[in-house]
Structure prediction request, 398 residues.
Amino acid sequence: MAHPEGTHTYRFASCMNTLPPSFLDELFRVSAVPDIISFAGGLPDASLFDVEGIKKAMESVFDDYGSIALQYTTTDGYRPLREIISRRYYSRLGLHVNPDEIQILNGSQQALDLTAKILTNPNDKILIERPGYLGAIEAFSFYRPSFSSINPDTEGPDPAELKNYIQSDNPVFFYGIPNSQNPSGLTWSDKRRKEVAEILSESDCLLYEDDAFGELFFDGKAREPVMKYLPDQGLMSGSFSKIIAPGLRIGWIRAPPQVLCAFNRAKQAADLHSNLFSQMVMTQYLEKNDIEQRTRMIAAKYGERCRLMIDLIEDLLSDSIHHTIPSGGMFLMLTLPGSMHSMNVFEHGIKEGVAVMPGIPFYIDDGGNSTIRLNFSASSETQIQIGMERLARVFHRL
Ligand SMILES: Cc1ncc(COP(=O)(O)O)c(C=O)c1O
Prediction:
């Protein structure tokens, strides 16, 4: 017998009950309020997207390839695009990565989902940084792992803690963001990269190196990837989202052959392949434009905004509020004095017309009560000035 409308009881998978609460709905709601200056989100600056260049690339895909661009394709991704990514690994980082070691994905976010899908069983240990990227915690959580998190010092993840966790927890993989981490903005030192690789190489724990921000160093210089020291144990994801356009949804993973094979099977089951048209447009765009120069321009712009935000933090906020000093990326992090709660700052900020991201969803414990993430990529200099003045008023009141 049919249920009366609106009374059906839905049977969800049990993982739905163990997911962390979602902050994003609240954030999107808040960001839509007119006149709010938002440092809470994580968007690249849309005014830096090369709309004309991408339009031309799109037209030439239709002119040159017609209906081929609208057909199904193979799961691994458009070969010419993988060749460009492979060449850029060599030119940027001196890494020899064969195009066959690369799987194109629907944004690097998909790599997070597929990694946990192919590598973990429920209750397996995943090691993350403390704080860690919210999108990774959310993606991994669907597979019901058990998380541990490692504190950083000024150079990156604490080596003694890493050793201990590897010995005591036997994690399947360690997920880290060595370049301009989201949310902290911190970058691992060269020395720490080697130490982390050395520690991992004595175990069978894989490294997942998320390189979403590696092309956004303000000084335009690349840092050495940890994967260089761990080719057989390293997965490394990359993305065109931050340097070209996130809406095209093109990211990738580089992984050792056996892992890549598992990725390929999981990707095929999930969505057959990434959008071919989008991959071809991206390829045309990369072939016809000086992407390295464009990337340097974007990174330099974000660097100016970051420096402005830091100057204003130091001028307007109390010395008891500490901040990280990013050398790239899109975020920095504030640590509040013990008496202040990040949710309080968030709520008062909204009343004052400025949105910040409480640290809470970046922690698997209560560390986020005293931290706040600020985004500097999506606001103009004027907005940063006004927004930080508003934030200063919030801090003076609390
Ligand atoms: C650290 C990190 N990894 C991965 C992603 C996913 O990006 P995309 O799927 O657009 O490549 C993001 C997005 O902000 C991110 O901050």
